[in-house]
Structures are given as structure tokens and as C-alpha cells.
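FAQ: What does the model actually see?

It sees only this:
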Amino acid sequence: MAFLPQELVNAVIHGIDDVPTLKASCLTGSVFREETQRILFRKFKLDDGMRNPDAVYSLLQKSPHIAPYITSLNISFPFGEKLPQYTESLLQIFERLKNVQSCTVAGMPNAGIHAALLSAFLAFLSRQPLRELNVGFTHSLLPVVCLRLITMAPAISFIGVTLSLAQNVDFPMPDWKPAVPRMRELTLGTRSQDINVLLVRAQSQEYTQGLLRISLCCVHDRANGLVFANMRTLEHLELNLQGVFGSPIAIPLLPALRSVQLSVSFREHRTPWFSHLILTLFDGSPLLADLTLELPPSRDTDLHIRAELLDTLDTVLVEHTAAPSIRWRLFLDMLVDDQKDAFNDLVAEVRRGMPRVDEKQRLVLEVYVRLALLDAGVLREEALVGRYTHRSEKKRYPHQVI
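And it is asked to produce this:
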């Protein structure tokens, strides 16, 4: 075994896709150990169980070579009454980690009670080669901390985050200013309207200018202030339109836009304002080449797509200069009796309503059933029922129609 090239050994290790086998490989000898440990420790979670801060700190003390292997860190700060006893271990962990490229954090430390820990965590983030930072389920986050966070990585997301000040109070600005805005992708999920209010303010625009990708819940800001502020650079746009209920959605000209995803309920997609929104997007986006329409689960027995919408899409997509394609992502409720029949009916309906796009092989339709929906859509589990595409695509799916 010692004569095998290390590259071949590494290739074998990377072909293992289950943790027990990886752990067993780690014990077989030094030739397997380093690469196996890199895989095992690449994604790391700090929790209140076996990977609590005290245990992790002890591990990093005994095996300091592991710290650089951790490139993805998931940490939940609400350790409850144990947080004070974990503070010293957390501080030591932050000092040892140097190569975190993706960080997901829930329950940021309170700036009043745990100011030292919060300061250390921000300093830790600033030292990492971060590519993405995901902040979730944090209450009363200081605006100054929020603005510091969005300077940490090219891709930032917030979900379930509230700020400590009321919306009608001027937000304090931080002392530091980014020389060049680092953030290029921003996602504002459910219950993050406070963040939207902060970032659309004129004083915050130097932190958000030049965004290439934006994902928003439009119910938080029908004026789409962040979209307007980045209208010249925006290339990818995702809008969650659920709960809008026909209210006008402001959309500027988007000359650089290349792809858009719209999420709307079965009920709301049938209203004329949705067709108008699609027309506005295509009229003002000469480079728009990919449209994804996502219709989340509905318990309605009527799962039909509005005929007028299909006709509008068929015309717009065929006549647009960028020859755009469309991808439908339709979701069935778990209670739908015959999922295969529902899939076939939806495929037939969409093909019948968009014959020219279908003929040009620019139509993809995917139907899913959602198995679980947790935390208002934050964590979701779904299974593919079927996918309609063309023979030119090699991948096959259950119930695929050709």
C-alpha cells in the first residue's frame, strides 16, 4: 500500500460517500489519515452536544493540524445558561481557526451581555477567507453589527433576523467604511424586513452597491429599493412574491440581468399583475436568458396554470432577442393522491399552452412533492416526482416525459 501514489489514494478516499467508512479508513494507516481527516472535518458544527465548545477546543488542542481542515463552520450561539461557561473555549476556537470559507451562524451574541464574545466573533470572521456568510434567527441585532457583517464575504444571507431599533429611528452608522464593497450576492429571507429597511437607506448604499445577485421577499419592500440601487450591475434576481396579493411590484430597467426566478403561489399566479410583472422584466432586460417560475405547494384541488399566462410567456420568450428558456418548478401538496397523474396533467397543460417554446426546446418542467416544511420555509425537504425535458438532455428522472 505504501507504494501506491498518494494521488491514487486520495482519489479512492474521495469516492467514499459515507461517514462510517471514512472513519474506518482514517484508522487503517497514515497514508489514508490526512486526506480522510480533511473530508471528515471539512464541514464542522458547534453545538451543545458532543461537539460543544469545550470538546472542540480540547480536540484542537490535542490535534492542532485539524484546524486548517475546517472550511465550513455551522455555529449556534444560543447555548442557554451554558454560554458563560463556554465563552473561554469559544474564544480559543476563534483564535485557532484560519481557513473558514463558509460560515452559518444562528443567534448572534447579545452586544450588551456578551459584548466581548461578539467582538471576538466579528474579529474571527474578518480574519477568514470567507466566501459566504449566513446569519439566521437572531433577535435585536445592532445595525452597526449588521453593516459590519455585510463586509465580511462576497455572498451574504439573512433569515429571521431583527434589528434592535424601531424602523422609524435613525440607524447609527459604523466608523469603518469598506474601500471597495466586498458583497456581491445578497439574500434576504423571511422575517428579515428590518435588514431590508436598513440597507435601502441612502447611508447604507456604499455597502450594497455593485451587487450581482439579489434574492428578496417582496412583501418586505414592494418598492424594491435594493433592486433599483443595483439596476446597472444586477445579473441574477430572485423574488419571493408570496403574500403580495396583487400589489404593484416596482421593477426598473435591468440591462445586465441574465436570469430571474419568481416564486408565487398557485392562487396568486392567476392574477393579471403577475403577467404584467413578467412583461416588465423582459421589456427592460435585453440579456435575460433564463426564467424560473416556482409555484410552492398548494392544497387547492385546482392545480391548473392560467391559460393567459402561458400564452403571454409563449409569445414573450419566442420574440425576445436573447432566446430565453423557461424552467417551471411546480410543487404538489403531500395529500395529492396520484402524483404521477398530476405530473402528466401539468406537463400536457404547459406544453399545450406554450407550443412555440416547446418546439424550440426551451422548456423544462419539474414537479416536486414537498415532504417537510420547517421554520417557515427555511429548511425544506422535497422529492422529484417527474421532469419534462428533451432528448438532448442525458439525465433521466422518475416519470420523465420525452
